[in-house]
Design a protein that fits this description.
Blueprint: H1 7-19, E1 21-27, E2 37-43, E3 50-51, E4 56-62, E5 65-70, E6 75-80, E7 87-89, E8 93-100, H2 103-120, H3 128-134, E9 136-137, E10 140-141, H4 146-154, H5 173-187, H6 219-231, E11 236-244, H7 246-261, H8 269-282, E12 288-290, E13 297-299, E14 305-311, E15 314-316, E16 319-320, H9 328-344, H10 349-352, E17 357-360, E18 380-384, E19 388-393, E20 399-412, H11 418-433, H12 435-440
Parallel strand pairs: 14-17, 17-18
Antiparallel strand pairs: 1-8, 2-4, 2-7, 3-6, 4-5, 6-8, 9-10, 11-20, 12-13, 14-15, 14-16, 18-20, 19-20
Length: 443
C-alpha cells in the first residue's frame, strides 16, 4: 500500500517555510515518583495565546497534590490536546505550541513540503472524505481533541460534516453527539398514528427506575487506596485519653482578640502542634521512620507536623515545617496559609510531602474517639475529638464545668511500644492542661 502524505503535513510544512515555524508538543511530566496520570483541573492558556518560557500553562491534579505546569517554549498555543477535567497519562501531550525555527530547519521543511505536494496533487479531489475523517477540511486542520476524534471514528462520523460550536470552530464532544443524534432522527421511520379509541384510557404511569452508577477510582481517592493499603499492613497500638482544657480555653480567650488584630485566627490547633513538638523532643523515636523492610530507623531532626484537612479535593494532610523552631503565633500563621491553599485546591508538592508526625482534628465534624490510620512511613498519628463541656468533680467533690477534649493515638507497634506512647501522651496532655509548663520548657 502506498503511503499518502498527510494534508496536515502539507499545510504546516508550507507555513513553516514561509513563517519559519514548527509545532512542539508539551508532554505531561512525571511530577512525583510512581505517577501514572494527571487530571487537568485548570487551563491558563487558550488557542492563539502568545506565551513565553516559564509562563503558566495549566494546573494538574495528581495523587494528593495540585501542581502548576509552565511552558518550556516561547511561541503561540496551537492546540489544546485535552479538555478540562480530562485524565492524561504521563508522557502524553497536553498542548501543541507553534515555535520559531532557524533557517536551515525551515528550508528542510519547505523541501519536504514541495515533495509531498507534487506527489499528492493528483489525488486531492478524491481524498476529501478521508481528510474529514482524519480531522482536516480542505487541507486545513479541524480543531478538536484526540478523545473527540476517537468518538468520531467509533461512530463513522466525518469531522468535516460537523459544525464546531467552540471558539475558532473547535469541535467538542457535544457537537459529535448532537450530530449523531440528528442522523438517527433523520433515519428513523415515521411513527404510525394509532387509531383513536372509542373510550380513551389514561396511559400507564411509568416509575423512574434508579440505576447503579460505576465510578472509576482516580486522583486523590486512588492515592488514598495506595496509602491506606500500605498502612493496613502495619500492626498498630492504640491509646486513648482525655484532656482538661479549662486553662487553655482561658488563655486562648485572652489572646484571640490580639491575634485577630494581626490578621491571625487563633484556634486550639497551634497549641496542640506546639505541645506535640515539645513532647517529641523528649521522645524522638516517635518522630522517626523505618525503612521499607523495617530494619533501620531514621530519626528526623525537623518536626514537620501534618494536619489532616477536609478539602474540596478530598482528605489531604499538608504539614507545617520545623514546628520545633516556631512560636504558637508563627504556627497559627502557617496553618492559616495551608487551610487557604487547601480550600482553593492549590496545595503544592512541598506542602504535602516530608511529614514526620500527624494530627487529625476529626472533632470539628463530630465525634469523641477515633481510630486514626497511620501515614507510612510515620510511626504515630493522633486524632482530636470534639471539645465538650461536661460536669466533673473538683478536688473538694464539688460538681464543676469542665472543657474536655478526647485524644486517640495510633502507633506503629513494630517499632513503638505502648509505654512510650502513654508517656508521650501524658507529657503532651500536661503541656495543655498546665500551659505554664509549656512556656517554661520552650527551647
Amino acid at each position: 500500500m502506498s503511503h499518502q502524505p498527510s494534508p496536515f503535513s502539507k499545510y504546516f510544512s508550507t507555513a513553516a517555510a514561509l513563517q519559519a515555524k514548527r509545532i512542539e508538543e508539551f508532554l505531561l511530566p512525571d511530577l512525583i515518583e510512581g505517577m501514572k496520570e494527571g487530571q487537568v483541573t485548570e487551563w491558563h492558556v487558550k488557542v492563539g495565546d502568545k506565551i513565553k518560557q516559564f509562563d503558566p500553562i495549566c494546573e494538574v491534579l495528581c495523587d494528593k497534590m495540585s501542581a502548576p505546569l509552565s511552558s518550556r517554549f516561547d511561541g503561540i498555543v496551537h492546540s489544546l490536546r485535552c479538555e478540562l477535567d480530562d485524565f492524561v497519562e504521563v508522557g502524553k501531550p497536553l498542548i501543541e505550541i507553534e515555535v520559531d525555527v532557524d533557517d536551515d530547519d525551515a528550508r528542510e521543511s519547505d523541501s519536504s513540503s514541495s515533495s509531498s505536494s507534487s506527489s499528492s496533487s493528483s489525488s486531492d479531489d478524491s481524498t476529501g472524505e478521508e481528510e474529514g475523517r482524519q480531522g482536516f477540511s480542505k487541507g486545513k486542520p479541524i480543531l478538536t481533541t484526540p478523545a473527540v476524534r476517537r468518538l468520531a471514528r467509533e461512530h463513522n462520523v466525518n469531522l468535516a460534516d460537523v459544525r464546531g460550536t467552540h471558539k475558532d470552530g473547535r469541535v467538542l464532544k457535544t457537537d459529535i453527539l448532537r450530530y449523531i443524534a440528528s442522523l438517527k432522527g433523520e433515519s428513523s421511520p415515521p411513527t404510525p398514528t394509532p387509531p383513536t379509541p372509542v373510550t380513551p384510557s389514561p396511559p400507564p404511569v411509568q416509575q423512574a427506575v434508579a440505576e447503579d452508577r460505576v465510578e472509576k477510582i482516580v486522583g486523590i481517592r486512588k492515592a488514598m487506596v495506595k496509602t491506606m493499603t500500605a498502612a493496613n499492613e502495619i500492626p498498630t497500638f492504640g491509646f486513648n485519653d482525655e484532656v482538661d482544657m479549662n486553662a487553655l480555653v482561658s488563655i486562648r480567650a485572652q489572646l484571640k482578640e490580639q491575634m485577630a488584630a494581626r490578621g491571625i485566627k487563633l484556634s486550639y490547633m497551634p497549641f496542640f502542634l506546639k505541645a506535640a513538638s515539645m513532647a517529641l523532643l523528649d521522645y524522638p523515636v516517635l518522630n522517626s521512620s523505618p525503612n521499607a523492610d523495617c530494619t533501620t530507623l531514621t530519626y528526623k531532626v525537623q518536626h514537620n507536623i501534618g494536619v489532616a484537612m477536609d478539602t474540596p479535593n478530598g482528605l489531604l494532610v499538608p504539614n507545617i515545617k520545623s514546628v520545633q523552631d516556631k512560636s504558637v503565633v508563627e504556627i497559627a500563621s502557617d496553618l492559616h496559609r495551608l487551610m487557604a491553599l487547601g480550600a482553593a485546591g492549590k496545595l503544592g508538592l512541598d506542602d504535602l510531602t516530608g511529614g514526620t508526625f500527624s494530627l487529625s482534628n476529626i472533632g470539628v465534624i463530630g465525634g469523641t474517639y477515633a481510630r486514626p490510620i497511620l501515614l507510612p512511613p510515620e510511626v504515630l498519628i493522633g486524632a482530636l475529638g470534639k471539645l465538650q463541656v461536661v460536669p466533673r468533680f473538683s478536688e473538694d467533690d464539688a460538681v464543676v464545668k469542665a472543657h474536655i477534649l478526647n485524644i486517640s493515638w495510633s502507633a506503629d507497634h513494630r517499632v513503638i511500644d505502648g509505654a512510650t506512647v502513654a508517656r508521650f501522651s501524658n507529657l503532651w496532655k500536661q503541656y495543655l492542661e498546665e500551659p505554664s509548663t509549656l512556656l517554661a520548657n520552650l527551647r
